[in-house]
């Protein structure tokens, strides 16, 4: 698996992405943590997968094969993990406090992507926030902001349907 992720990182830099990619790339850890949230309620919905792609495109400026490679590497790493430590330690090592807080917001966006959040998703985001040093206050503020974003997106979808 390590070789597969290393190959992914080499390929992604050839697509014009971050030239300083490392074997413990925080982007793979971020996607793996997103998958942990998506899997928490036992169902990975199409809307969650779509939202993940949108968020990764916006966050990292990736498209096409580079985006798919990142998502595949993160999904594989997440499915092989027995806990969050490997990913949260990469995140703590490579992201500053503001970036870690934004990551929690991104995880909440994933949790709300299917129209609701479950108790299991709450628990996963809470545990990740604790491990990466995001305060309970910031976690709640990010959850509230993600809920507002989800409500606005739902309203826009409803307007487009009319």
TrEMBL record:
InterPro entries: DjlA_N, TerB-like. Transmembrane segments: none annotated. Residues 28-140 form the Co-chaperone DjlA N-terminal domain. It holds the Pfam family TerB. This is Co-chaperone DjlA N-terminal domain-containing protein. It comes from Martelella lutilitoris. The lineage of its organism: Bacteria, Pseudomonadati, Pseudomonadota, Alphaproteobacteria, Hyphomicrobiales.
């Amino acid at each position: 698996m390590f070789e597969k992720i290393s190959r992914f990182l080499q390929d992604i830099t050839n697509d014009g992405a971050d030239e300083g990619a490392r074997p413990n790339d925080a982007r793979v850890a971020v996607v793996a943590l997103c998958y942990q949230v998506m899997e928490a309620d036992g169902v990975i919905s199409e809307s969650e997968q779509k939202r993940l792609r949108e968020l990764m495109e916006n966050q990292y400026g990736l498209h096409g094969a580079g985006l798919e490679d990142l998502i595949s590497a993160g999904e594989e790493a997440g499915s092989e993990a027995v806990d969050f430590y490997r990913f949260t330690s990469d995140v703590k090592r490579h992201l500053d406090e503001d970036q870690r807080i934004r990551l929690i917001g991104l995880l909440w966006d994933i949790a709300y992507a299917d129209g609701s959040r479950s108790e299991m998703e709450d628990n996963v985001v809470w545990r990740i926030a604790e491990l990466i040093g995001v305060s309970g206050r910031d976690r709640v503020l990010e959850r509230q902001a993600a809920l507002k974003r989800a409500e606005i997106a739902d309203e826009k979808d409803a307007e487009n349907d009319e």
